Structure formats: structure tokens, C-alpha cells
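Every protein is a chain of amino acids, and every chain bends into a shape of its own. The protein below has been through that process, and both of its lines are reproduced in full.
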Amino acid sequence: MTVSKNINNPVGQGGGQRKKQSRAERANNGPYRNLDRQGAADQKAELVRKMREKAAAAEAEAARQAGDGSAQS
């Protein structure tokens, strides 16, 4: 019996043949990887934008409170 670890030559895999995978696909560079990376980049950009907005709002609040406190003293 042949022992194979090659994805393109599966032993004991019933149900038909598998599509031959290219070297890039076997290295996890398949056709959907670029879409996944773009989606992850979009999520990261959205998160960074939200964090910057929160930081700017916190700075504005701190500046406003510092301005109020110095006017009362």
C-alpha cells in the first residue's frame, strides 16, 4: 500500500478526485487569500479610525475641563 502525504495524491480519500492545487495554493496563497487580506485591512482601518476618534474626543474633553477649571480658580 502506498503512503502519500501529497494533497494532489490522496490515499483513501473516497468521493472522487481533488482539484490539482498549484504551488501557491498549497502555500496558502489561494485565490481567496487576497480578498481575506483586503477584508482584514478594511477592518483594521475602521478600528484605527474609531480609536483615533475616541482619542480626539477624550483630548477635547480634557482640554475643555482644564479650561473650565482654570477659569473658576
